[in-house]
Protein backbone atom coordinates (compact mmCIF):
# COMPACT_ATOMS: atom_id res chain seq x y z
CA UNK A 1 0.00 0.00 0.00
CA UNK A 2 1.26 3.46 -0.81
CA UNK A 3 2.64 5.17 2.33
CA UNK A 4 0.73 8.36 1.55
CA UNK A 5 -2.68 6.66 1.22
CA UNK A 6 -3.73 7.46 4.80
CA UNK A 7 -2.83 10.19 7.32
CA UNK A 8 0.65 9.66 8.72
CA UNK A 9 1.51 10.09 12.38
CA UNK A 10 5.10 10.98 11.50
CA UNK A 11 4.23 13.88 9.19
CA UNK A 12 4.27 17.54 10.24
CA UNK A 13 1.57 19.48 8.45
CA UNK A 14 3.09 22.04 6.11
CA UNK A 15 6.44 20.26 5.85
CA UNK A 16 7.78 17.50 3.60
CA UNK A 17 7.64 14.01 5.06
CA UNK A 18 11.08 12.78 6.24
CA UNK A 19 11.20 10.29 3.36
CA UNK A 20 10.85 13.24 0.97
CA UNK A 21 13.64 15.24 2.62
CA UNK A 22 16.94 14.38 0.98
CA UNK A 23 19.03 17.02 2.78
CA UNK A 24 19.68 16.93 6.53
CA UNK A 25 20.88 20.22 8.00
CA UNK A 26 23.10 20.54 11.05
CA UNK A 27 23.51 16.86 12.00
CA UNK A 28 26.80 16.02 10.34
CA UNK A 29 28.25 14.63 13.59
CA UNK A 30 25.51 11.99 13.83
CA UNK A 31 25.89 11.04 10.17
CA UNK A 32 29.66 10.75 10.58
CA UNK A 33 29.18 8.60 13.68
CA UNK A 34 27.04 6.14 11.76
CA UNK A 35 29.38 5.99 8.75
CA UNK A 36 32.42 5.58 11.00
CA UNK A 37 30.76 2.60 12.67
CA UNK A 38 30.01 1.06 9.28
CA UNK A 39 33.52 1.58 8.00
CA UNK A 40 34.87 -0.06 11.14
CA UNK A 41 32.71 -3.12 10.60
CA UNK A 42 30.43 -2.21 13.53
CA UNK A 43 27.04 -2.07 11.84
CA UNK A 44 24.91 -2.78 14.89
CA UNK A 45 21.46 -4.31 14.33
CA UNK A 46 19.72 -1.72 16.53
CA UNK A 47 20.19 2.05 16.43
CA UNK A 48 18.53 4.54 18.76
CA UNK A 49 18.31 8.06 17.34
CA UNK A 50 17.74 10.48 20.21
CA UNK A 51 17.34 14.21 20.81
CA UNK A 52 14.57 16.80 21.03
CA UNK A 53 11.56 16.53 18.75
CA UNK A 54 11.83 18.14 15.32
CA UNK A 55 15.61 18.38 14.89
CA UNK A 56 16.03 15.80 12.11
CA UNK A 57 16.00 12.35 13.76
CA UNK A 58 13.37 10.92 11.43
CA UNK A 59 15.07 12.48 8.39
CA UNK A 60 18.32 10.82 9.48
CA UNK A 61 16.56 7.48 9.92
CA UNK A 62 15.18 7.66 6.37
CA UNK A 63 18.59 8.73 5.04
CA UNK A 64 20.21 5.74 6.75
CA UNK A 65 17.52 3.40 5.43
CA UNK A 66 17.86 4.76 1.89
CA UNK A 67 21.65 4.45 2.07
CA UNK A 68 21.69 0.91 3.46
CA UNK A 69 19.17 -0.41 0.97
CA UNK A 70 20.92 1.26 -1.98
CA UNK A 71 24.32 -0.04 -0.89
CA UNK A 72 25.35 -3.17 -2.82
CA UNK A 73 25.48 -6.34 -0.79
CA UNK A 74 29.18 -6.59 -1.64
CA UNK A 75 29.80 -3.99 1.07
CA UNK A 76 29.63 -6.33 4.04
CA UNK A 77 30.59 -5.87 7.71
CA UNK A 78 34.25 -6.72 8.13
CA UNK A 79 35.15 -5.37 4.71
CA UNK A 80 33.58 -1.98 5.11
CA UNK A 81 36.75 -0.18 6.13
CA UNK A 82 38.32 -1.13 2.79
CA UNK A 83 35.25 -1.02 0.59
CA UNK A 84 35.29 1.54 -2.23
CA UNK A 85 31.49 1.29 -2.23
CA UNK A 86 31.15 3.40 0.89
CA UNK A 87 30.86 7.17 0.82
CA UNK A 88 31.65 10.09 3.09
CA UNK A 89 27.96 11.01 3.41
CA UNK A 90 24.61 9.23 3.40
CA UNK A 91 23.57 10.94 0.18
CA UNK A 92 21.80 8.76 -2.39
CA UNK A 93 20.87 10.04 -5.82
CA UNK A 94 17.11 10.66 -6.14
CA UNK A 95 17.35 8.75 -9.43
CA UNK A 96 18.50 5.61 -7.64
CA UNK A 97 15.81 2.90 -7.98
CA UNK A 98 15.77 2.37 -4.20
CA UNK A 99 15.29 6.10 -3.60
CA UNK A 100 12.42 6.14 -6.09
CA UNK A 101 10.71 3.16 -4.46
CA UNK A 102 11.12 4.63 -0.98
CA UNK A 103 9.63 7.93 -2.13
CA UNK A 104 6.69 6.04 -3.61
CA UNK A 105 6.26 3.94 -0.46
CA UNK A 106 6.86 0.73 -2.41
CA UNK A 107 10.28 -0.45 -1.23
CA UNK A 108 9.73 -4.13 -0.23
CA UNK A 109 12.74 -4.25 2.12
CA UNK A 110 11.62 -1.32 4.29
CA UNK A 111 9.00 -1.39 7.07
CA UNK A 112 7.79 1.71 8.94
CA UNK A 113 6.41 1.06 12.42
CA UNK A 114 4.30 3.98 13.65
CA UNK A 115 0.89 4.77 15.06
CA UNK A 116 -1.69 3.31 12.71
CA UNK A 117 -4.78 4.91 11.23
CA UNK A 118 -8.06 3.79 12.83
CA UNK A 119 -10.37 3.50 9.82
CA UNK A 120 -13.46 3.05 11.99
CA UNK A 121 -12.92 6.10 14.21
CA UNK A 122 -11.27 8.07 11.40
CA UNK A 123 -8.28 9.10 13.48
CA UNK A 124 -4.74 8.04 14.30
CA UNK A 125 -4.40 5.58 17.14
CA UNK A 126 -2.91 6.93 20.36
CA UNK A 127 -0.09 4.38 20.56
CA UNK A 128 1.84 1.72 18.68
CA UNK A 129 0.26 -1.60 19.63
CA UNK A 130 1.62 -5.12 19.97
CA UNK A 131 -0.30 -6.05 16.81
CA UNK A 132 1.72 -3.42 14.94
CA UNK A 133 4.96 -5.01 16.17
CA UNK A 134 3.68 -8.44 15.17
CA UNK A 135 3.18 -7.13 11.64
CA UNK A 136 6.80 -6.02 11.71
CA UNK A 137 7.85 -9.51 12.79
CA UNK A 138 5.77 -11.05 9.98
CA UNK A 139 7.38 -8.65 7.50
CA UNK A 140 10.85 -9.86 8.49
CA UNK A 141 9.85 -13.50 8.10
CA UNK A 142 8.20 -12.94 4.73
CA UNK A 143 10.97 -10.78 3.35
CA UNK A 144 13.70 -13.15 4.54
CA UNK A 145 12.96 -15.38 1.53
CA UNK A 146 14.21 -12.62 -0.78
CA UNK A 147 17.48 -12.37 1.11
CA UNK A 148 19.52 -9.23 1.44
CA UNK A 149 19.49 -6.38 3.90
CA UNK A 150 16.20 -5.18 5.41
CA UNK A 151 15.46 -2.06 7.43
CA UNK A 152 12.71 -1.03 9.83
CA UNK A 153 12.09 2.52 11.08
CA UNK A 154 10.23 2.91 14.40
CA UNK A 155 8.88 6.47 14.66
CA UNK A 156 8.59 7.02 17.42
CA UNK A 157 9.63 4.35 19.91
CA UNK A 158 8.20 6.57 22.68
CA UNK A 159 4.69 5.84 21.36
CA UNK A 160 4.82 2.07 21.90
CA UNK A 161 2.56 0.74 24.62
CA UNK A 162 4.02 -1.71 27.15
CA UNK A 163 3.11 -4.84 25.21
CA UNK A 164 4.53 -3.42 21.99
CA UNK A 165 7.78 -2.41 23.72
CA UNK A 166 8.23 -5.91 25.14
CA UNK A 167 7.55 -7.48 21.74
CA UNK A 168 10.11 -5.21 20.07
CA UNK A 169 12.61 -6.00 22.83
CA UNK A 170 12.46 -9.69 21.89
CA UNK A 171 13.35 -8.77 18.32
CA UNK A 172 16.31 -6.71 19.53
CA UNK A 173 17.45 -9.61 21.69
CA UNK A 174 17.21 -12.10 18.81
CA UNK A 175 17.45 -9.98 15.65
CA UNK A 176 16.70 -11.62 12.30
CA UNK A 177 19.72 -11.93 10.01
CA UNK A 178 20.36 -8.93 7.80
CA UNK A 179 17.94 -6.66 9.68
CA UNK A 180 18.68 -3.12 10.86
CA UNK A 181 16.25 -1.47 13.30
CA UNK A 182 16.23 2.34 13.49
CA UNK A 183 14.39 3.64 16.55
CA UNK A 184 13.50 7.34 16.76
CA UNK A 185 13.09 8.56 20.34
CA UNK A 186 12.41 12.05 21.67
CA UNK A 187 12.56 10.89 25.30
CA UNK A 188 14.79 7.79 25.56
CA UNK A 189 14.63 7.85 29.36
CA UNK A 190 11.03 6.65 29.05
CA UNK A 191 12.00 3.55 27.07
CA UNK A 192 12.71 0.18 28.65
CA UNK A 193 16.33 0.18 29.86
CA UNK A 194 16.82 -3.14 28.08
CA UNK A 195 15.78 -1.57 24.77
CA UNK A 196 18.30 1.22 25.26
CA UNK A 197 21.05 -1.23 26.19
CA UNK A 198 20.53 -3.30 23.05
CA UNK A 199 20.84 -0.34 20.70
CA UNK A 200 23.75 1.79 19.67
CA UNK A 201 22.80 5.42 20.28
CA UNK A 202 23.17 8.36 17.93
CA UNK A 203 22.40 11.62 19.72
CA UNK A 204 21.28 14.60 17.66
CA UNK A 205 21.61 18.11 19.08
CA UNK A 206 19.31 21.12 18.61
CA UNK A 207 20.23 23.15 15.56
CA UNK A 208 22.55 26.13 15.85
CA UNK A 209 21.23 29.58 14.99
CA UNK A 210 22.74 29.48 11.49
CA UNK A 211 21.53 25.93 10.80
CA UNK A 212 18.12 26.86 12.15
CA UNK A 213 17.89 29.81 9.78
CA UNK A 214 18.88 27.61 6.85
CA UNK A 215 16.41 24.89 7.82
CA UNK A 216 13.55 27.35 8.30
CA UNK A 217 14.26 28.94 4.94
CA UNK A 218 14.25 25.47 3.35
CA UNK A 219 10.89 24.82 5.02
CA UNK A 220 9.47 27.98 3.47
CA UNK A 221 9.13 30.00 6.69
CA UNK A 222 9.16 33.71 5.91
CA UNK A 223 11.74 35.92 7.59
CA UNK A 224 9.00 38.03 9.19
CA UNK A 225 8.66 36.63 12.72
CA UNK A 226 11.20 33.87 12.05
CA UNK A 227 13.59 35.11 14.76
CA UNK A 228 10.92 34.80 17.46
CA UNK A 229 9.87 31.41 16.07
CA UNK A 230 13.46 30.19 16.12
CA UNK A 231 13.94 31.42 19.69
CA UNK A 232 10.82 29.68 20.91
CA UNK A 233 11.47 26.47 18.97
CA UNK A 234 14.84 26.07 20.68
CA UNK A 235 16.73 24.61 17.73
CA UNK A 236 13.85 22.44 16.48
CA UNK A 237 12.73 23.26 12.96
CA UNK A 238 9.84 20.80 13.39
CA UNK A 239 8.59 22.83 16.36
CA UNK A 240 8.97 26.04 14.37
CA UNK A 241 6.80 24.64 11.58
CA UNK A 242 4.14 23.50 14.04
CA UNK A 243 4.13 26.90 15.72
CA UNK A 244 3.81 28.68 12.38
CA UNK A 245 0.94 26.45 11.24
CA UNK A 246 -1.01 26.92 14.47
CA UNK A 247 -0.28 30.62 15.12
CA UNK A 248 1.88 29.55 18.03
CA UNK A 249 3.47 32.94 18.66
CA UNK A 250 0.07 34.45 19.39
CA UNK A 251 -0.81 31.57 21.73
CA UNK A 252 2.55 31.82 23.49
CA UNK A 253 2.00 35.54 24.04
CA UNK A 254 -1.29 34.66 25.77
CA UNK A 255 0.55 32.20 28.04
CA UNK A 256 3.20 34.79 28.92
CA UNK A 257 0.47 37.35 29.65
CA UNK A 258 -1.30 34.87 31.95
CA UNK A 259 1.85 33.94 33.86
CA UNK A 260 2.78 37.60 34.20
CA UNK A 261 0.10 37.64 36.92
CA UNK A 262 2.03 35.06 39.01
CA UNK A 263 2.23 34.48 41.90
CA UNK A 264 -1.29 35.88 42.12
CA UNK A 265 -2.74 33.98 39.20
CA UNK A 266 -5.57 35.58 37.26
CA UNK A 267 -8.06 32.72 37.73
CA UNK A 268 -10.67 33.93 35.22
CA UNK A 269 -7.98 34.29 32.59
CA UNK A 270 -6.64 30.82 33.42
CA UNK A 271 -10.13 29.29 33.13
CA UNK A 272 -10.67 31.02 29.79
CA UNK A 273 -7.42 29.58 28.43
CA UNK A 274 -8.27 26.07 29.70
CA UNK A 275 -11.79 26.21 28.27
CA UNK A 276 -10.38 27.09 24.85
CA UNK A 277 -9.35 23.40 24.44
CA UNK A 278 -12.75 22.05 25.49
CA UNK A 279 -15.03 20.40 22.98
CA UNK A 280 -14.74 18.30 19.86
CA UNK A 281 -12.13 19.33 17.32
CA UNK A 282 -9.92 21.18 19.81
CA UNK A 283 -7.23 18.49 19.99
CA UNK A 284 -4.74 20.47 17.87
CA UNK A 285 -5.09 23.52 20.14
CA UNK A 286 -4.68 21.36 23.23
CA UNK A 287 -1.50 19.83 21.77
CA UNK A 288 -0.26 23.31 20.89
CA UNK A 289 -0.85 24.76 24.36
CA UNK A 290 0.72 21.81 26.17
CA UNK A 291 3.73 22.09 23.85
CA UNK A 292 3.97 25.81 24.59
CA UNK A 293 3.70 25.19 28.35
CA UNK A 294 6.58 22.75 27.99
CA UNK A 295 8.61 25.34 26.08
CA UNK A 296 7.82 28.05 28.62
CA UNK A 297 9.01 25.91 31.54
CA UNK A 298 12.17 24.88 29.70
CA UNK A 299 13.01 28.51 28.93
CA UNK A 300 12.19 29.45 32.53
CA UNK A 301 14.58 26.82 33.88
CA UNK A 302 17.37 27.96 31.55
CA UNK A 303 16.79 31.57 32.55
CA UNK A 304 17.71 30.87 36.16
CA UNK A 305 21.11 29.52 35.07
CA UNK A 306 21.95 31.52 31.95
CA UNK A 307 19.91 34.66 32.47
CA UNK A 308 16.75 35.82 30.67
CA UNK A 309 16.59 35.15 26.91
CA UNK A 310 18.24 37.82 24.79
CA UNK A 311 15.60 37.35 22.11
CA UNK A 312 12.04 37.38 23.42
CA UNK A 313 9.48 35.03 21.92
CA UNK A 314 6.67 37.22 23.33
CA UNK A 315 6.45 40.77 24.72
CA UNK A 316 7.49 40.94 28.38
CA UNK A 317 8.95 37.42 28.41
CA UNK A 318 12.47 38.41 29.50
CA UNK A 319 11.28 40.50 32.45
CA UNK A 320 8.87 37.76 33.53
CA UNK A 321 11.58 35.11 33.49
CA UNK A 322 14.02 37.32 35.36
CA UNK A 323 11.39 37.71 38.09
CA UNK A 324 10.21 34.09 38.29
CA UNK A 325 13.59 32.43 37.83
CA UNK A 326 16.27 34.71 39.31
CA UNK A 327 18.79 32.07 40.38
CA UNK A 328 19.93 28.44 40.18
CA UNK A 329 17.60 27.33 43.01
CA UNK A 330 14.58 28.60 41.09
CA UNK A 331 15.97 27.05 37.91
CA UNK A 332 16.08 23.63 39.60
CA UNK A 333 12.49 24.06 40.80
CA UNK A 334 11.27 24.89 37.30
CA UNK A 335 13.33 22.10 35.75
CA UNK A 336 11.79 19.55 38.14
CA UNK A 337 8.31 20.88 37.39
CA UNK A 338 9.05 20.78 33.67
CA UNK A 339 9.89 17.10 33.88
CA UNK A 340 6.98 16.26 36.18
CA UNK A 341 4.33 18.09 34.17
CA UNK A 342 5.60 16.51 30.96
CA UNK A 343 5.03 13.04 32.40
CA UNK A 344 1.69 14.13 33.86
CA UNK A 345 0.54 15.47 30.50
CA UNK A 346 1.51 12.29 28.64
CA UNK A 347 -0.30 10.16 31.21
CA UNK A 348 -3.38 12.37 31.06
CA UNK A 349 -3.58 12.07 27.29
CA UNK A 350 -3.12 8.30 27.47
CA UNK A 351 -6.04 7.83 29.87
CA UNK A 352 -8.23 10.44 28.12
CA UNK A 353 -8.49 12.96 30.95
CA UNK A 354 -10.59 15.97 29.95
CA UNK A 355 -8.19 18.31 28.09
CA UNK A 356 -9.52 21.46 29.79
CA UNK A 357 -9.09 19.89 33.23
CA UNK A 358 -5.60 18.67 32.35
CA UNK A 359 -4.52 22.08 31.07
CA UNK A 360 -5.96 23.86 34.09
CA UNK A 361 -4.15 21.43 36.39
CA UNK A 362 -0.86 22.28 34.67
CA UNK A 363 -1.51 26.01 35.09
CA UNK A 364 -2.31 25.59 38.78
CA UNK A 365 0.86 23.56 39.36
CA UNK A 366 2.89 26.38 37.81
CA UNK A 367 1.05 28.88 40.02
CA UNK A 368 1.80 26.76 43.10
CA UNK A 369 5.52 26.64 42.29
CA UNK A 370 5.60 30.40 41.67
CA UNK A 371 3.99 31.01 45.08
CA UNK A 372 6.51 28.77 46.84
CA UNK A 373 9.44 30.50 45.14
CA UNK A 374 8.01 33.93 46.02
CA UNK A 375 7.82 32.94 49.70
CA UNK A 376 11.43 31.72 49.59
CA UNK A 377 12.59 35.02 48.14
CA UNK A 378 10.63 36.99 50.74
CA UNK A 379 12.09 34.98 53.62
CA UNK A 380 15.65 35.38 52.35
CA UNK A 381 15.40 39.13 51.79
Would you write up a description of this structure?
The chain is of the alpha/beta class and 381 residues long. It folds into two domains: 18-203, P-loop containing nucleotide triphosphate hydrolases (Rossmann fold), CATH 3.40.50; 246-375. The protein has helices at 28-39, 57-70, 97-104, 130-143, 162-173, 193-197, 209-218, 226-233, 237-245, 248-259, 267-275, 283-306, 317-324, 328-350, 355-380; strands at 46-50, 110-113, 117-118, 123-124, 150-155, 179-185, 200-203. Strands 2-5-6-1-7 form a five-stranded parallel beta sheet, with helices on both faces. A two-stranded antiparallel ribbon has the order 3-4. Strand 5 (150-155), helix 5 (162-173) and strand 6 (179-185) form a beta-alpha-beta unit. Helix 14 (328-350) packs antiparallel against helix 15 (355-380). The model is unreliable at 76-84 (pLDDT under 50).
Number of domains: 2
Under the CATH scheme, the architecture of the largest domain is 3-Layer(aba) Sandwich
Total number of helices: 15
Characterize the main sheet.
5 strands, parallel
Structural class estimated from helices and strands: alpha/beta
Brief descriptors of the model:
381 residues, alpha/beta, Rossmann fold, five-stranded parallel beta sheet, two-stranded antiparallel sheet
Provide the fold topology.
Elements: H1 28-39, E1 46-50, H2 57-70, H3 97-104, E2 110-113, E3 117-118, E4 123-124, H4 130-143, E5 150-155, H5 162-173, E6 179-185, H6 193-197, E7 200-203, H7 209-218, H8 226-233, H9 237-245, H10 248-259, H11 267-275, H12 283-306, H13 317-324, H14 328-350, H15 355-380
Parallel strand pairs: 1-6, 1-7, 2-5, 5-6
Antiparallel strand pairs: 3-4
Helix pairs in contact: 4-5, 8-9, 10-12, 11-15, 12-14, 12-15, 14-15
